[in-house]
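Researcher: Re-running this chain for the archive, since the previous output was lost when a drive failed. Same request as before.
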Amino acid sequence: MSENNIKYLIELVFKNKALTRQEMHDLDLLLTEDGNKKEVDAYMQKTWEDASSVDTDMSVDSIWERINQIKQKRNRLTRIVTFAQKYAAILLIPLTLYAIWLNYQNYTGSKQLYTINTAKAEQTTITLPDGTTAWLNVGTTISYNANYNKNNRRIKVNGEAYFDVFKNPKLPFIVNLGDINVKALGTEFNVNAYSGDDIQETTLYEGSVEITSEKHAISKVSEILKPGETIRYSPKKGIFKTSKANIAAVGAWRKKQLSFEDAKIEEVVAKAERWYNVKIKYNPKEFKNETLTVRLKANESLDRFLEIIEQILNIETKKESEKVIILKKKPM
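Model: Regenerated structure tokens:
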């Protein structure tokens, strides 16, 4: 890439200008392709030497935000540098350029991770670089490296997500859930694998997926799912169990419906805490044999949820500030 093109792209970022699709593509090449390194280094060095002739107002934070928006990167500098006088520009512009250079250096490494997450009580839909659509349930994190859609389509999930996978036979789409991998060429499936949960679930809607265990390969090497099937995996025991899926219940969350199917109380509490962003206290010994099967209407409130489970489970609930207490009703 020529020096003029490098200068043009970096100045666009400096000036916080809107980038066209082609300019975004060119900036991506500038920041990621090894072949541009010498040219970028040379330009940075020249600009550093010429920085004393520059007089401008600039925010390091805004520059980083522009780069982050383009690259979907979440790390940010929080320090804002303002150039009110020429001598300040002489000292600080090189630091700004160096910050961009460091950012460039980070992008050239395949270990760079992009992370997208939802908070508790928040859901979102995103399109991945390969065209795959992902729906993220509450409290979910997905991450992938800089080589995604270049030499791999690997993604890591902590939480629950539904994928409509863009077909690319040359690059299989692989979701890592910790101990197991879910491999697909082009399909639709749901994964549920929150950190700390006893069970991880994968449900196939269309196509075909292969489930492979990395930790417990001796007991179960792989399993091929058919549409309409769910496979449940226990990370602690290394056990797989395949069964017919309740598709409506599995996919209820994408319709903003909180759903439980023969769920133990600890699963109910964990799911409700994520869904409503609330802390729930209870005595596990009082609910050893309790299970819950119910699907709420879309966007039901916390109060309505508590009212429903009070009737089904014969319990009492109390709200205290940011906390909910569940108590088993005593026999009359």
